[in-house]
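TA notes, week 10

Several of you asked for a full example with nothing omitted. So below is the full record: structure tokens for the whole chain, then the designed sequence directly under it. When grading your own attempts, check the secondary structure regions first.
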């Protein structure tokens, strides 16, 4: 089971994190107490983290809040059921409460969550959580998706090399067309194994970066070897690759769980 968490950080930027709950079995969301700060070698007492103690997994959410309790909420997988617990520092519950789809959990209590999407609120932090729990993919789908991703990466790498060595813009245009087609195929195939709404935000970033690449290539036709345009083009290609890598990680997580029969 893969959880995709979405929230806004302290500067109001949308953040996203994929959590492989089938592997981790549980995660806490909250501030760190002294024991955990020592375990993870972190001094900050106000930042919010997603973490697993046993496997020493931790991700900074880039949010600071004193209202969120230490170990505020526990999310765990029990016999394929997703359980949300208002945990708090010692398991007796948080100070400012945990809400699931707008309903406040009784202090220290747990609830089983069903469905592919729910909203979690811990104190003053809102988190949208999408649940990827899909075993319906075929080996044909998997092969095609991973093959498409490899082709996208190869095309981006080829373009970066050509940009570095000053290849004329008109020779870059076919690569842009190929990237557009590959991204569309990728989006189509990915919709077979996950709910498209789960990855819409990442695909928006993919298309934004792809549009920047197209614009740079067109501008280079009128301004060949412009160092500013070449730098922007290379940066846009790097951004595009990063967004595709985020999608690739989701695919590989689902593929791994499917091959192990755990989703």
């Amino acid at each position: 089971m893969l959880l995709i968490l979405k929230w806004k950080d302290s500067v109001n930027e949308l953040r996203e994190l994929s959590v492989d709950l089938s592997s981790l079995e549980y995660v806490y969301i909250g501030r760190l107490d002294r024991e955990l700060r020592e375990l993870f070698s972190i001094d900050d007492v106000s930042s919010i983290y997603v973490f697993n103690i046993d496997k020493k997994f931790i991700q900074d959410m880039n949010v600071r809040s004193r209202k969120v309790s230490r170990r505020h909420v526990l999310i765990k997988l029990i016999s394929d059921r997703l359980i949300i617990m208002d945990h708090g520092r010692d398991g007796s519950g948080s100070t400012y409460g945990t809400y699931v789809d707008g309903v406040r959990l009784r202090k220290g209590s747990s609830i089983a969550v069903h469905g592919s999407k729910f909203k979690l609120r811990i104190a003053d932090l809102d988190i949208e959580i999408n649940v990827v729990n899909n075993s319906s993919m075929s080996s044909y789908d998997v092969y095609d998706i991973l093959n498409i991703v490899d082709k996208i990466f190869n095309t981006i790498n080829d373009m970066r090399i050509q940009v570095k060595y000053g290849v004329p813009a008109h020779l870059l245009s076919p690569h842009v067309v190929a990237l557009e087609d590959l991204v569309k195929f990728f989006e189509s195939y990915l919709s077979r194994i996950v709910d498209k709404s789960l990855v819409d935000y990442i695909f928006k970033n993919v298309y934004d970066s792809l549009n920047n690449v197209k614009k740079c290539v067109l501008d280079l036709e009128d301004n060949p070897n412009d160092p500013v345009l070449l730098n922007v083009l290379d940066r846009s290609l790097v951004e595009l690759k990063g967004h595709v890598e985020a999608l690739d990680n989701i695919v590989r997580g689902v593929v791994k769980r499917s091959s192990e029969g755990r989703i």
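The radius of gyration is 21 Å. Use that as a sanity check on your answer.
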